[in-house]
C-alpha cells in the first residue's frame, strides 16, 4: 500500500513536471538499498541508512521544480513540507503504538490469551504413565487400532504384528503421542 501511494505521488509530480527521471532513479535506488538491507544484509547498517537518505532526497527533489537553480523560498518550502510529513508520520506511529492496543479492533484481531500448563492447557497428553500397563484390544490392531488401558480408550499401534480384537495387550514403548503395544501372552 505504501509503495502504491509513493508511486501515485511520483506519478502526479511527474505529470506536472516536478519530478523527472533523476528523482525516480534516486528513489528507486533508495528502495533497492533498503530492500537489500532488509532481505540480504543482516543487521542495519550503511545500505539501510543510505537507502533511507536516498528515498528522502528523491522525495525532496520531486518537491522542487528546478532543484539546482530554485530560489531559496522554494527550497525552504520543500524542506518544511518534507519535515512536517516526517514529524506527522512518526507522531501517528507513536499514537497508534500507544492507543491502538487498547481498542476493540485490536482485541478482535490480536490473540491476547496464552494457553499455558498453569492454566490447564497442554499441547499433548503425557502418555509415559501407560508404559508397562496392560489392557485389552477393542479393535483388531493391524497394526493400529483402539485399546482400553486403565479404563481409557486410546489409539495404539503395534510393532508391525497383527493382534485380534479382545486380546490382552501390554504397552512396551511410548514415543511422543504414539503408544506401542504387543500381545501379552
Quick take:
With 185 residues, the protein is α+β, with helices and mostly antiparallel strands.
Secondary structure layout plus pairing:
Blueprint: H1 2-15, H2 21-39, H3 46-62, H4 72-99, H5 104-109, E1 134-137, E2 144-149, E3 152-158, E4 168-175, E5 178-183
Parallel strand pairs: 3-5
Antiparallel strand pairs: 1-2, 1-4, 2-3, 4-5
Structure notes:
- The chain is α+β, with helices and mostly antiparallel strands.
- The protein is 45% helix and 17% strand.
- It is built from 5 helices and 5 strands, in the order H-H-H-H-H-E-E-E-E-E.
- It has a 5-stranded mixed barrel.
- Helix 2 (21-39) packs antiparallel against helix 3.
**Proportion of strand residues:** 15-25%
Distance between the termini: 69 Å
For the biggest β-sheet, the strand order reads 1-2-3-5-4
Order of helices and strands: HHHHHEEEEE
Rg (C-alpha, Å): 33 Å
Structure characteristics:
single chain, 185 residues, alpha+beta, OB fold (Dihydrolipoamide Acetyltransferase, E2P), 2 domains, five-stranded mixed β-barrel, 45% helix
Amino acid at each position: 500500500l505504501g509503495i502504491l501511494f509513493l508511486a501515485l505521488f511520483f506519478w502526479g509530480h511527474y505529470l506536472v513536471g516536478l519530478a523527472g527521471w533523476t528523482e525516480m532513479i534516486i528513489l528507486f535506488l533508495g528502495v533497492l538499498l533498503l530492500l537489500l538491507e532488509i532481505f540480504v544484509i543482516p543487521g542495519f547498517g550503511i545500505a539501510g541508512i543510505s537507502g533511507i537518505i536516498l528515498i528522502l532526497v528523491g522525495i525532496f527533489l520531486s518537491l522542487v521544480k528546478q532543484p539546482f537553480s530554485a530560489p531559496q523560498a522554494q527550497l525552504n518550502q520543500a524542506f518544511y513540507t518534507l519535515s512536517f510529513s516526517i514529524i506527522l508520520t512518526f507522531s501517528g506511529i507513536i499514537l497508534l503504538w500507544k492507543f491502538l492496543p487498547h481498542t476493540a479492533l485490536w482485541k478482535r484481531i490480536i490473540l491476547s490469551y496464552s494457553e499455558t500448563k498453569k492454566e490447564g492447557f497442554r499441547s499433548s497428553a503425557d502418555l509415559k504413565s501407560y508404559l508397562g500397563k496392560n489392557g485389552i484390544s477393542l479393535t483388531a490392531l493391524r497394526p493400529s487400532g483402539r485399546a482400553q488401558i486403565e479404563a481409557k480408550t486410546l489409539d495404539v499401534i503395534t510393532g508391525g504384528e497383527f493382534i485380534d480384537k479382545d486380546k490382552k495387550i501390554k504397552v512396551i514403548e511410548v514415543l511422543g503421542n504414539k503408544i506401542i503395544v504387543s500381545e501379552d501372552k
